[in-house]
Amino acid sequence: MRYRKLGNGPLEVSELSFGTWLTVAGGVGHEQAIRCIHAALDYGITLFDTANQYGAGEAERVLGEALGSFPRDRYLIATKLYFPVGDEPDHGLSAEQIEKQLNRSLERLGVEYVDLYQCHRYDKHTPLDETMRALDRAVRSGKVRAIGFSEWTAEQIDAAARTAGEGGLVPFSSSQPQYSMLWRKPEAAVFAACARHGIGNLAFSPLAHGVLTGKYAPGVPPPEGSRAASEQMNMFMETAGRHYRSDYLLEAVAKLKPIAAGLGLSMVQMALAWALRRGEVASAIIGASRPEQIEDNVKAAGVELSPETLAQIDEVLAGVVVRE
Predict the structure, then answer these.
(1) Per-residue pLDDT tens digits for 160-182
(2) Structure pTM?
(3) Active-site pick, 54, 117, 122, 216
(4) 58-67 vs 30-42: helix axis angle to the nearest 10?
(5) pLDDT tens digit string along 170-223?
(6) Residue 116 contacts residue 11 (beta carbons within 8 Å)
(7) Which of 26, 79, 161, 234 could disulfide-pair with 197, CB 3.0 to 4.6 Å?
(8) Is 3 among the residues known to form the active site?
(9) CA 180, CA 59: separation in Å to the nearest integer?
């Protein structure tokens, strides 16, 4: 495993990080989830990403349980707030919410601090200055080491940097955008905004909800045990901005297989190496329902794709890539 600095903040993260969005939140059994988390640690993954919303807090509880027997300096925990937790109606990024949700996350995780606290989305109903000051207090209290956000626009990123600078507040050091061979929107403006302000990126869904594993074929039902075959884990495959199970997309993705084979890589390894080729990306977030998947994933760390390979990938995916 290799490691990269996360923006201008205090954190150094593994090139691959472990996400708990669907699997640890209930998509796989409790003991299996813990085995996957332990496998990630064994393979050198140090950053574990979760959110208070995932499984109405269950992902945080399982992650805390799995990591609790290890020294605290062996891993980094990133969590988030914004969306309602379970049936609770309150949400957002108000000062009250930040204080309350942070304390609840710490309790579920069983830790005294989180390494990275992220705004899961932008809150247009709360003044940005209020949010930034509350996050600043969270850092200065010792409960948070660094702050970040997920899926903010370039304009929102610029505004946050300006607010932090003018107020002498702790700035953001992390962005978490969706980014993959099939979903390239951050390249339009977000990566440039992050670079302007010393913000690193944690790419989520670098395998495009599992499509870039190559396990799904056009006109064929998804394999048993896969994300697409699970009602608990496939709900976003048709709503995350792209119809990831459509035949026309799967037909294009199938053309990547000979490219990967020619490099001696699995489809997964090539897709992760593709996301990590960008200097703006500090880490790509992977999910796993089986420990052996992690073993395959981590082999992508350090792989460099040639300009010729990148051109081949662009050619076969030209008709299905989302850029704006």
Answers:
(1) 999 999 999 999 999 999 999 99
(2) 0.92
(3) 54
(4) 50
(5) 999 999 999 999 999 999 999 999 999 999 999 999 999 889 999 888 767 655
(6) yes
(7) 161
(8) no
(9) 24
